[in-house]
Amino acid sequence: MPSRLQLARGAILDLFNQHAIQVFRSRDLKGILSQNRAEWRLAQTTTLAEFVTYLVKSGKLRRWDFPFPVRKEIRYTWGDVPLHAVLLTLKPDCYFSHYTAVQMHDLTEQDPKTIYVNFEQPPKPAPAGALAQERIDGAFARKPRMSKNIARFRDLRVCLLNGKHTGYVGVESRAVAPHGESGKLTVRVTDVERTLIDIAVRPFYAGGVGEVLKAYQRAAPVASVNRVAGLLSQLGYTYPYHQAVGFYLERSDAYKASLIEMFREKFTRELDFYLTYGMESPRYEERWRLFVPQGF
Predict the structure, then answer these.
(1) What is the predicted pLDDT for the residue at 147?
(2) In whole angstroms, what is the distance from residue 209 CA to residue 219 CA?
(3) Which of 94, 174, 185, 267 is in Cβ range 3.0-4.6 Å of 242 for a Cys bridge?
(4) Is the pLDDT of residue 3 over 90?
C-alpha cells in the first residue's frame, strides 16, 4: 500500500515546480511541510527528515553541505541551481569580493580555487586616538590575520569573510559568468573600483601583490580613478591604504599621469605604510611613503 507521501507526490512536486524560491534552508522546508500537511493529508507524525528524504529520493531536491568550522551550513535546491546562487544565501546580503570579484570582472588570467563571500560586520565606533607610526609598523611586521572560516566543496574552497561595515558601498548586482558555471548569472559583487581597493587592502585574498598589480593593469580601460578616490574617502579606513592604491595605479603604468596626480592631491601622506604584511628587507618608495617587497 503506498504511503501518504507517495499519494501526495503529484501535489508536492507541483508546489515545488512552481515555487518562486529555488534555494531552501531547513526552516523553509519545515514551513512548507507545516503549511501543506493538511492539504496533502500527511500524518502528524511525518517528520521534516522523512519529508526531505522522500523529496531527495523521489523529486528534484538536492542537498548542499558546507562544513564551515564556525557553523556548518546546509542548503537544499530544487532542480539545477548554480553554485554561486547557492553561496549568496549563506549570509544575509552577502556578496562576492576579492579574488572572486577579480575573476568575475575578468581582471585575471588565473583560475582561483577559493571563492570569497563577504558579509559585513555591524557598525563599530571609530578607534580612539590618532594613528601612530609604531602601531602601523607593529601590525605590518607580522603575518596577516586571515579568515579560517573555510569550507571545502568539491575541488573548491569557500571562504566566508566577516568584512568591514561599509553599508554595501560599491556593491552591485551584475550579470557575470562565474568559474565553472554554464551561462551568465546575476550576482551581488563588488564593482571594479571597489574590487581594486579591496585587493589592495587584503592582497592575500587576491593571489598576492603581483596578481593585484596585474588586476590594476587589466582594469585600466574600465576603472575610474575618480571613483576609486571617492570610494576610499567613503570607506574611511584608519590605515592609509590610499598610499598602496596610489602606488598600484602608478606602478601599473596603465593610467594617465594627470589622473594619478589628481589622486595624490586628494590624500595626505603623513605616515609610512606597507604594501603587504611580513615583508623581509622591503624597499622604500619615497613618492608614496610606502614599503614594498624587494624586486617588486
Answers:
(1) 96
(2) 15
(3) 267
(4) no
Same domain, 175 and 43: no
Grid cell in block for residue 245? 592604491
* Final residue in a domain of this structure, among 27, 46, 78: 78
Same domain, 161 and 261: yes
The pLDDT value given to residue 179: 73
| 23 inside domain | yes
Same domain for 29 and 172, yes or no, is no
Of 220, 188, 230, the C-alpha closest to 106 is: 220
**Residue for grid cell 554561486:** 84
Q: List Cβ<8 Å contacts ≥24 apart for 165-168.
A: 165/120, 165/121, 165/122, 165/123, 165/124, 166/120, 166/234, 166/235, 168/93, 168/95, 168/120
Cα 134 to Cα 272: distance, rounded to the nearest angstrom: 10
